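Because discrete structure vocabularies remain unfamiliar, we first show an illustrative case, written as a sequence plus integers encoding its fold.
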Amino acid sequence: MRAAWYEKQGSAKDVLTLGEMPDPHPAAGEVRIRIAASGINPGDIKKRQDAFGYGMAYARVIPHSDGAGQVDEIGGGVPTEWLGQSVWCYGAQSYRPFGTAAEFTVVPLDQVARLSPGVSMEQGACLGIPGITAHRAVHVAGIVRGRTVLIQGAVGAVGLCAVQLARRAGARVIGIIRSSEDEETATKAGAHEVVRNDDMLAAGVRALAPKGVDHIIEVAFGANIEVDLELLNMGGSIATYATDRETPQIPFWPMVFKNTRLFFLGSDDFPRDAKVLAAKDLNAALEDGWSGFDVAERIPLPEIARAHELAEHPVRRGRVIVIP
């Protein structure tokens, strides 16, 4: 098969290689997917850059955990009904060396979801890490129906999914946006109200929720923890999946006095049942008419280094997809 890989970490143009590898075959409980679209996430870039300082877990890595395509081979114990199914997958490069930036990938069956009719392969390739992270962020602290949920970065990949999923779960959703240009996107995803992330953020949210918000989904923990705590109701919760600072300070006593619950979310290690439920709910949202993501760039596999550079430094709003 044709695949892209790296055998050392560094900049995209310096380490990503295109070549031929033996076709993979599924073991028991696994399926092989002929990849039609491969999604790029920030985590894929950070692994390639060695941003977390973990080094190379494998001698050769095919990047990208998310993708979509058609099941063309099944391992032992997998029902034959999966053959020929259009699917999306997640975690292909989580604790595994070979992801979706290739003509084929092999994953366990429980990391595969059927692609809903009418949903494009490109859309399916965007769902995995952002959608599952968003679902966990919405639900990790308990039932949100009838509660007020504030979502920082409401038009980012995770934030957009979180807006939709929180709305579907019965929450009142306040989306925090960077500019007025983002308002339509956040509202279309399901936000009841939107507030600009500027000097008037706290006042804007308090005007909408005078008693405070019940749950916050956070993309920039270090930058926003103090304003989040100011806006949070007694006994409220924060679910964070990213930070702008590696070692942020925490206002410990104010959090204690508010009985704040804090959840740190790493998508690779969510409980299996949480991932399966997330995939089910994401498919349901798409089937009910959610439009999902905008795709900004469609890049052929031989140009994967350029795809990574565009994901790192976008020139247009939307996701970057690699087409094998």
Observations:
- The chain has two domains: 2-128+293-323, 141-264.
- The CA atoms of residues 135 and 277 lie 9 Å apart.
- The first strand starts at residue 2 and ends at 5.
- The first helix runs from residue 12 to 15.
